[in-house]
Amino acid sequence: MLLMAKILIFALSGFLRVAMGFDIGLSTKCVEIPEEMDMCHEIGYSEMRLPNLMGHTSMAEVILKSTTWQHLVHTDCHPHMRTFLCSLFAPICLDTFIHPCRSMCVGVRDSCAPVLACHGHSWPDSLDCDRFPADEDMCLASLTKEYKYLHKVLPKPACQTCPAVEEFFTHKRVLEVFCDNNFAVKVKLSKKRTLLGDQEYNIECQVEFITQGSLLPYETQNMIQQWLLINENCTQKMTQTHRPMVYLLVGKVEEGIILVNQVYRWQRRDSQLTLATQKWRYHKCL
């Protein structure tokens, strides 16, 4: 959900709970949201208050601290992650500071803290949810139940033990693995280094289904991208070089969670995988 530039639009979109706001005073100024803050672009406004709600007084500090969160935002661990973080790092220029509600913080924390833990980090004290106002105050609230009802809830990737990357196998064994799971997708992956020195992983071609299960083609590419980001240690093991490689990811969707259980590196002229995928359409699982 985009943050809007006017209090009226905030209220109409269901984000604001009306009450007394916090006076900004004369010590802050409006500045352009810098290009380096990718996560806060296209959110409904282009100017932010400085100092911000994290106490950052310089743009250099804002950029440095906010960019450490961009990787987590890309995992899409919670639909309000960008809204929550941008309201703190790049608060909208209004006559009052608009804090995120405590309930929004709790929702984001409960969904995204496990992803941070997967990367070896804990939820920071600076984002302790008790510091934010209750929902009856003027603050950014969570989406309404009606909005959630109208939008399909997609399966989500989870932090998991890294699946084995198989390079030597028979087509019969691959068929057995297909039978034990409910999706198999063929993807082409590559990695590159960002300007900040981080690794960034891309799916270079359209996801190709071998077996589909409950997943739909237009949904799967984003979900696979999320899995790669959340389980970055697994992705690093898979993509040893910066040269694009093709992989077959095999897994299950259980209770709304996507788990990748097996990975095959699809080598050029790989007759066993090709044979398995050809035989699959006629194969009957025991």
UniProtKB/TrEMBL annotation:
<keyword id="KW-1015">Disulfide bond</keyword>
<keyword id="KW-0879">Wnt signaling pathway</keyword>
<keyword id="KW-0221">Differentiation</keyword>
<dbReference type="InterPro" id="IPR036790">
    <property type="entry name" value="Frizzled_dom_sf"/>
</dbReference>
<comment type="similarity">
    <text>Belongs to the secreted frizzled-related protein (sFRP) family.</text>
</comment>
<dbReference type="InterPro" id="IPR041772">
    <property type="entry name" value="Sizzled_CRD"/>
</dbReference>
<dbReference type="InterPro" id="IPR001134">
    <property type="entry name" value="Netrin_domain"/>
</dbReference>
<dbReference type="InterPro" id="IPR020067">
    <property type="entry name" value="Frizzled_dom"/>
</dbReference>
<feature type="domain" description="FZ">
    <location>
        <begin position="25"/>
        <end position="142"/>
    </location>
</feature>
<dbReference type="InterPro" id="IPR015526">
    <property type="entry name" value="Frizzled/SFRP"/>
</dbReference>
<keyword id="KW-0732">Signal</keyword>
<dbReference type="GO" id="GO:0017147">
    <property type="term" value="F:Wnt-protein binding"/>
</dbReference>
<feature type="signal peptide">
    <location>
        <begin position="1"/>
        <end position="21"/>
    </location>
</feature>
<protein>
    <recommendedName>
        <fullName>Secreted frizzled related protein 2</fullName>
    </recommendedName>
</protein>
<dbReference type="GO" id="GO:0060070">
    <property type="term" value="P:canonical Wnt signaling pathway"/>
</dbReference>
<feature type="domain" description="NTR">
    <location>
        <begin position="159"/>
        <end position="285"/>
    </location>
</feature>
<keyword id="KW-0217">Developmental protein</keyword>
<keyword id="KW-0964">Secreted</keyword>
<feature type="disulfide bond">
    <location>
        <begin position="105"/>
        <end position="129"/>
    </location>
</feature>
<feature type="disulfide bond">
    <location>
        <begin position="40"/>
        <end position="86"/>
    </location>
</feature>
<dbReference type="GO" id="GO:0005615">
    <property type="term" value="C:extracellular space"/>
</dbReference>
<dbReference type="GO" id="GO:0035567">
    <property type="term" value="P:non-canonical Wnt signaling pathway"/>
</dbReference>
<dbReference type="GO" id="GO:0030154">
    <property type="term" value="P:cell differentiation"/>
</dbReference>
<dbReference type="Pfam" id="PF01392">
    <property type="entry name" value="Fz"/>
</dbReference>
